[in-house]
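INTERNAL AUDIT FORM
Audit reference: QA-55
Scope: verify that the stored structure record matches its stored sequence.
Auditor: D.O.
Record contents follow.
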Amino acid sequence: MKKFYIPQVEENEESVEEKEQKKEPKVKPEPFVSTFFGTKVKDEITFTGAQFGNRGIQYDAFRDKDKRIIKDDYKDYIIKTDIFESESKSEDDYAKTITYEKKENDLPDYYETFSYETKLEQDRNIENFEVKNEEQYIDEEVVLTNYKEVINPKEEIKPTVKPKSKNKYIAPPLSLLRRGRNITQKDNKATLFQLESIDSTLKEFNIAGQVVKYTKGPAVTQFEVQLEPGIKVQKVKSIASNLQANLKARTLRIQAPIPGKSTIGIEVPNPETDIVLFGNLLADETFLNDGNPMNVILGLGLDGEAVHLNIAKSPHCLIGGTTGSGKSVCINSMIASILFKAHPDDVKLILIDPKIIEFSNYEDIPHLATPVITEPKVAAAALKWAVEEMENRYQLFRSLRVREYEEYSKVAANNLEVKHIPYIVIIIDELADLMLVAGNDVEDYIQRLTQKGRASGIHLIIATQRPSVDVIKGTIKTNIPTRIAFLVKTQVDSSIILDHSGAEKLLGNGDMLYNDSVSEQRVQGAFISPKEIKDITNFIRNNCNTDFIFTSEDLQEKMDNNTNFNDGINDEYFQIIARYVVENQNASINRIQKTFGIGFNRAQAIIQGLEELGIVSENLGSRARTVQVNLEQLEGILDEL
């Protein structure tokens, strides 16, 4: 039986590598072209540079295992040296010269010796200092190559600015003022009686506490009571009437607690009030030579130290008090301080006196910007002038790139081409009388001055004996941080001035509460008599010439030119309000007042002017006026004016 065979064709076996070599790629790769070197780039493997850490360790993956770096040996770049060298080191090894110790003569020809060039700043002030043993640190081969010789710096010669000439002014002498021993009387018996009465009253009502300290001022003595832990402060206030009865005091004021202390203050009137003379406080050389003409005298504090008011920093002041409380005397002491310290070219006063007689002694003195104003309508015109002056000053500051009056004064002192401008202090003795006649306009001007006047060097001091809400409105109070309260009738009047009660418990005759918006203190005002004021102003008038910025006739003429508020058409806000009314289709007087910050009478006059021109309808009673034109028609009407 034959064997069965399956025939098989034998083929030449080729290796896989040979087959892959025979395969031709469908697309031949193009040679690499470098942007820097073109086609001439070596075909070699390169590694990116080390960006962080130890470079040797980063390349460790490409090394053989036996040549890899041990991390512990190269944690830090520290050169390790043997402290004790091996004795087996040969003398030949010691004789070998280390590479970095080779001298320059032993180096090849292509090494060059570098010399450092020292650069001199021509504008720098060079001072020579003696240096000991300097030769051993200086290389002989170091040469200054930039300069052939040292040039001595030239001294900068500044042009001397001559002080601007001022008008002649002779300050009144201190001999015109009354002066005396201004020492608080020490009545120890009365003080001890008051102290014991307070302690005994506290024990009667089971209030654990006692007087630990007292301070005697010109008019009152302040006793400081320290309460035991756990006793409420309000308990002392609740027995105020009993304390006043036991002390036999006409009034009593309690501070619970004293600001900045843990004690309660009980202020008790002294049996006799010491008079604080203005002349004694003015005679202080530190005060007279402080270089600030706007720093004025107020009086003495409880601690016997003089209290001053810096008008420039205040920046506006509100004074309130009843008749005879010392309000007018306080204003006179402020004005007198300015007359003694300030040159007329540095400070100008605008005195508004609706009562006619308060500022009569200051007529025709050189510090006045205008004669003393007694008519309310003229006062409104003067306040309007102050607003315009404020705006003009801001434009002047903007042109010189300064922000406030102090910066401008420094520029003017060093530049003869820049005009010197004075501080302007506006003092209104009785705001209530002014508000009755020209209330809306006066309120508008005062509001604008208190908002923006400080930086322009214009400051207000407003006094009133009737601190009611209709006189001192919230818009005025908000921008007047400094308050001085004399004796008032009720707690409500005290709250209007100080925003809290306390002024109703003052003694009068110069007794005041002075609040500078940060702290409050009780002050006995300085007293200056009418005779002293008369002597001071007579001396100034006899030795100095008066130079007003504007006169009453100028204000009257300005009033005549701007009294067309009845038709409203000549008002500076007329065209602006006309466009506002047409754009918003609303002719509400209240809305115009709030939007543009003007008074009712002025807004009403403008609306009447719009009515006459046919821009708005007539008064429709309870219904609102209608707008009768569009913007295009309005522009045509305004162009014809």
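Auditor finding: record pair retrieved intact. The first helix runs from residue 16 to 22.
Action required: none
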